[in-house]
Design goal:
single chain; 440 residues; alpha/beta; Rossmann fold; 17 helices
Length: 440
């Protein structure tokens, strides 16, 4: 039996009644009132009311001038990594055409979504990498039009590195607009700014943004409903407890409710990691006010009897990020099935994936990794099927089975729709026989 050395709370993914009500009010007002409501909420929440919410080319150019050469190079590097991986993913997602019966051709083709809205948070952390992940990836998928949005950081607008990343990643239009009002504008469109509604919304945000995506889902598609960021680390005595502790606290700095979990088969290693976390928090950990609170309330340490029990427990948690710092990480890759993204060996860390390595950092949280993966180029492609019947004998067989099943379901219109085709099928069959008897 697994032994819980430190118990952590489980974040509640549901928005509060107050958040649900407020989001609903904002969405309804913007849907019916348009720009005046957008301006009202932007002034209220961000003290931001420019003549136009669409960022012009001069502002993008000015922001680029404020970004250092080193940071520009890092952003360009990260964008190239994300694009390269997305391109290779796209190459593995193939169209299909197959003759499933003689003369019956079935197939599918991959068609990109036309319009995507990308939201990048700009509150405590103006997330540069979030812009790259949610703009560069749909661009590679072939999305024709991407509207990007981020809130103003100060009186000048979007945080300059964030704006540079949006533009470099390929955004077609950029909105300086935050929170629920940004998602509403992208979902409903805004004629005064020459903005048409998008087909899909992607990107992270606070509880209000998450709730807005939930309420808008159906009218538009969404990537996923993201809750607090999570990390689980599977480690044994071969790992460095100080490094494991640092990786756990690094993820805990996302917010005061970000769970960090250690799964190990070693009592002594569990104790060492707890000690190292205490040392970091008592010392110079740079975000200890946030990470410390998160660790105290949501951090947990679990000692398992063997690695089979580690896998079982890990699959129950289904963590967003899973680091594996053990002597044989390949065994866990072959056996763990529920996670957003996995990091094998001590040289691979969540921080790399969050920023630059190339895999997408928009991942399922709150146990959603049990049934879905994270954002990828495939999320922006629709698999559209088609059918073609070329052989009368196959058509007759399909017709008979269809009519039989439809009649049993009491769907007599379906049955009639099939049976009306029988004379044409028989005529085609006769023509085929004549053609077969004709001399070459």
């Amino acid at each position: 039996m697994a032994r819980v050395v430190k118990q952590g709370l489980k974040p509640d993914p549901a928005a509060s009644a107050a958040v649900r009500t407020r989001v609903s009010e904002i969405l309804l007002a913007i849907e019916h009132q348009g720009l005046p409501a957008v301006r009202r909420y932007s002034e209220q929440f961000d003290a931001w009311s420019p003549e136009h919410f669409v960022v012009d080319a001069a502002s993008v150019s000015a922001a680029s001038e404020e970004v250092s050469n080193d940071l520009q190079a890092a952003i360009i590097f990260a964008c190239d990594q994300v694009k390269q991986f997305a391109q290779r993913q796209r190459g593995a997602i193939l169209d299909l055409e197959t003759e499933i019966l003689p003369g019956v051709v079935l197939g599918h083709k991959q068609v990109p979504i036309k319009r995507v809205g990308s939201y990048s948070p700009g509150g405590r952390y103006p997330l540069i990498a979030s812009s790259i992940m949610t703009i560069a990836t749909p661009k590679v998928a072939g999305v024709r039009n991407i509207i990007a949005a981020a809130p103003p950081r100060d009186a000048l607008g979007i945080h300059p590195p964030q704006l540079f990343a949006m533009a470099h990643s390929g955004a077609d239009r950029i909105l300086c607009l935050g929170g629920v009002q940004a998602l509403a504008v992208m979902a409903f469109g805004l004629p005064s700014e020459d903005l048409d509604p998008v087909d899909m919304l992607v990107g992270a945000g606070n509880a209000y943004v998450a709730e807005a995506k939930r309420q808008l889902f159906g009218r538009v598609g969404i990537d996923l409903l993201a809750g607090p960021s999570e990390i689980a680390v599977i480690a044994d005595d071969s790992a460095d407890p100080r490094l494991v502790a640092a990786d756990m606290l690094a993820q805990a700095e996302h917010g005061v409710d970000s769970p960090a979990t250690l799964l190990t088969t070693s009592d002594s290693f569990a104790s060492k990691v707890i000690e190292e976390i205490a040392k970091w928090l008592a010392g110079d950990w740079p975000t200890k006010e946030i990470a410390g609170q998160s660790w105290q309330q949501y951090g947990q340490v679990i000692v398992c009897e063997d690695r089979g029990e580690v896998v079982s427990y890990c699959d129950q948690i289904a963590p967003e990020h899973l680091e594996v710092q053990v002597s044989d990480p390949a065994w866990y890759l072959a056996n763990v099935t529920n996670y957003g993204s996995i990091f094998l060996g001590s040289d691979a860390t969540v921080a790399y994936s969050d920023k630059t390595i190339g895999t997408n950092h928009v991942l399922p949280t709150g146990g959603a990794a049990r049934y879905t993966g994270g954002l990828s180029v495939g999320k922006f492609l629709k698999t559209l099927t088609y059918q073609r019947i070329l052989d009368p004998a196959a058509a007759l067989a399909i017709n008979k089975a269809t009519s039989t099943i439809a009649t049993a379901e009491l769907m007599f219109g379906h049955s009639l729709s099939a049976e009306l085709r029988i004379p044409k099928i028989l005529a085609a069959a006769d023509d085929s026989e004549l053609d077969a008897r004709s001399p070459a």
